[in-house]
């Protein structure tokens, strides 16, 4: 893989004639590309492009099935199918908000926002979770309670079955795409993809994965509710299925909201990233040890690294500067998501 270009904004500075502290900063600038185009020299841009594609596919699938479910729900009289229509409407709105998050979060840094706008993507993703909570879960539970209270027994399930099956296929295609993207990310770290899904800072992929998984479970619940209601002649089961769909959406919305709050507050990079940074630093000549390592997830594909390192006592000022440059080069070349590197070289005083 080609090494990303680096442009040091601050030249190395040394304070003190006794080999005091030197502070360096390196930023990896974003490589310009056309919208939606993958740049082989900029893996972060490729990840964003894949995420946009995943969101677009999921959004189109949800919009299509939302219309079909709404028609089927009205024709069949099923509260569960109408709840699934609300579920798809909420998911479609979520995909639109996630698309906004990706576009706004990928804007380049400015003087006022030197670390870029990556965290704004977490804000929009949080709003998307709230939409799922209010629109999807609220409507589904309301529909379920109303169906149980009114107990209309004029269900016409044939149309509902057809739409549920077609919707299952469409949602399954969208889910497979998000799983493939997570598998590619997991292969880079040699970790199980489910573990990566739990910890990934890419909230758009995580949101699509959870929403599509919930959609498939919701479709099964709706099908079971309609089927049992048809067999027993009681619409109560259809209402119960609608309520269960609402509870499912509550779980998804709460999970996404909690994840985005953690990233908005400022979560560190994953343990695998930290371990990789420590391995790369350990291979730098004249670097004795890492005194303190701090990381910060600035956005889905942007990481800030701040590290205080100890050098050999006999290392000269020139050797320290060369080693510091080597450390930065190794980190940025090894992990393209590392966008900013701040080094604080020092000699350990015994």
UniProtKB/TrEMBL annotation:
Q: Where are the transmembrane segments?
A: 122-146, 158-176, 208-228, 240-257
Keywords, A to Z?
A: Membrane, Transmembrane, Transmembrane helix, Transport
Q: Does the keyword Ligase apply?
A: no
Report the InterPro entries cross-referenced here. Answer: Cation_efflux (IPR002524), Cation_efflux_CTD_sf (IPR036837), Cation_efflux_TM (IPR058533), Cation_efflux_TMD_sf (IPR027469), SLC30A9 (IPR040177)
Pfam families associated with the record = Cation_efflux (PF01545)
Bias class Polar residues marks the residues at 34-47
Superkingdom, natural source: Bacteria
As for membrane topology, the entry says:
Multi-pass membrane protein
Q: Where is the Cation efflux protein transmembrane domain?
A: 55-265
The UniProt regions of compositional bias labelled Basic and acidic residues, in chain numbering, are 1-13
Which intervals of the chain are annotated as region Disordered?
A: 1-47
Q: Where in the cell is it found?
A: Membrane
**What name goes with this protein?**
Cation diffusion facilitator transporter
